[in-house]
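Might you be able to consider the sequence and fold that I enclose below?
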Amino acid sequence: MSRHLITWCCFFFAGNLFSLYELKSLHFGNIYADILHLEEAFRAADLAVFSNAKNFRRDPHVPLIVPLVNPSHLSIIPQQQSLFQPPLKKGFIVTNANCSTTGYVIPLYALEKSFGPIEAALVTTMQAISGAGYPGVSSLDILDNVIPYISGEEEKIEWETLKILGGIAEDDQGVKTFDMHARQPLRVSASCNRVPVIDGHTECVSVRFARRPPPSPQQVREALAAFTPDAQTLGCPSAPRHAITVHEEPDRPQPRLDRYYQDGAGVSVGRVRQCQVLDVKFVVLANNVSIGAATSSIINAEFAVLKGVVQP
């Protein structure tokens, strides 16, 4: 499936997709909660829906997928389809994560893949004004200012991280559930701030590993740089060449310098160093209107098509 065909179907403004167009059996959405019935209607009409909206992120039968992290969660789709009478053959809903969650779970997943479970994470965000949508934050509120509160954002990060990084458990009756990282409990504490930057969320992250002794900062740098997600291996057209770009300079990443690298489809990490409270700390930059938004929806769709999850 052509990247140009997919992106042509989406109409964006300030990171939001306001119109829906049909591309064979695919629909993309970033619609508001008061019209969530449109997503339900598309699914009921046996269409595959890849959504950047929040409506179904907490649904126990809907995968919450960051495409560079957990596309394996597409495996729950047959169960979602079986809930309908008659069962759906082609229709389903897949959501991608909140923009601030997306940016930092990519390096967290890379580290868990290399070094085993993370048992604690602290994240402080400096979020761009475009993340507030249109018309967004008043200029009189944000110019020469930092707003240390974004409604619901901290709770989203703390909860979504567990669903994304956790696995899928199956009981004796074959019923699948998201295990919310229960096999190795993960504690997440988030503090979210709105800052006067147009695009690009910067996040300061500290993590504690379950393994003792923990990896060194150099080992962490090497693991992040070497990380190759399944979406890249599979050849998804919109996947970045490098999921994580590791900077050695002490003052990188920066939104103005790094947010548009690879069309914003990957993330940048810098300042990897020892943490005196946990184990390792670093800075992440993610483009909130690209990988933090509809680019994730598009890569999710590409992955599903290449894996045969989307039926012609």
The longest helix spans residues 99-115. The CA atoms of residues 82 and 88 lie 7 Å apart. The longest strand covers residues 118-127. Residues 1-25 have pLDDT under 50 and may be disordered.
